[in-house]
Amino acid sequence: MPRPTGRVLTLLELLQSGGTRTVAELADRLGVQGRTVRRYVDQLIDLDVPVESVRGRYGGYRLAPGYRLPPLMLSDDEALAVLLGLVAGRRAGLTTTEHTASETASAKIRRVLPKHIARRLDTLLEALAFTDQPGEFDTPDAEVLLTIADAVRHRRPVSIRYTDRDGRRSDRTLHAYGIVAHAGRWYVTSKDAQIGEDRTFRLDRIADARTLPGSFEAPMGPGPAQRVLAGFATAEYRHEVTLRIHGTVGQIRAHLPASVASLEQYAPVAGEDRATERWLRVELRVERLGWLPPVLASLDRPFVIERPDELRDLVTVLADRLASYARQA
Q1: What is d(CA 47, CA 238) in angstroms, rounded to the nearest whole number?
Q2: Cβ neighbours of residue 123 closer than 8 Å, sequence gap 6 or more
Q3: What does the pLDDT read at residue 175?
Q4: Interatomic CA distance for residues 135 and 224, integer angstroms
Q5: DSSP 254-299
Q6: Of 93, 132, 174, 182, which shows the fewest CB atoms inside 10 Å?
Q7: Residue 314 pLDDT
Q8: H helix intervals, the chain
Q9: CB–CB of 147/158 below 8 Å?
Q10: Is the pLDDT of residue 1 over 50?
């Protein structure tokens, strides 16, 4: 049978999971009477744990909001979930510039795990394989990330100091709509107040961020993720490519996602299924054309190259090369 001290810690763990817990619920979980629950609550209060009493039909006990509580009580499953989340976050590059933060957090949790859970975790990590290779990501500053997130939530303008990909520095005022994690990087999508146009900025290139007085209205239309992807597809690159491809939206998007290409969907005629194959216009802006011919070949759909002629030549070269391979004995 658990000792009273163990039940008090269990009560603390239950309260940390959030929300208001009724006396009857807590008594049932702890296997004690209601008056014993009240005594355990008094013990927590004596330890300076801010337990609040909530009156009314649905009343009970809860922890005061915003309190940073030591010690943090995690079940075995919760500890495992946190550790796997830290591993996945480091792998995907979704961390801040404090590279050691996730490592020290992992070490602290692992130190207090029961031995049998720690062994099982080690076994899982040894058996776990990833299909992609870990990359070196330029991660954002934690304070910049949190400041911009606060500006997004409260619709407050934010002043930033930004360095673009060519090394040019500038001070900008943004009306930030949202923060988007994509392909191991963090982005903020916003309206640049100085030019009055939508812009996407990499958070790791922002050196300083300060919220400003005032407010703004969020725009109607696509959400932050769609705006970021559309920005990638229409970015200024060396080549502008226009294609017509015969197929469904799903077939085309499987090889040319929204972050790469914009797709003009024609409204289906009356009675036509939206998944019906038809000619769709696809536009891309790319720095190099060499990767496109293999992608078009993998589509295995009829296509027409409207521009540029250089791409048509590259596709012809690839077709001739593949044909020569096929003729070999």
Answers
A1: 65
A2: none
A3: 92
A4: 25
A5: TTS-TTTEEEEPPPPPTT--TTS-EEEEEEEEES-STTHHHHHHHH
A6: 132
A7: 92
A8: 4-16, 23-30, 34-46, 76-92, 99-112, 115-127, 142-154, 224-233, 249-253, 292-299, 309-327
A9: yes
A10: no
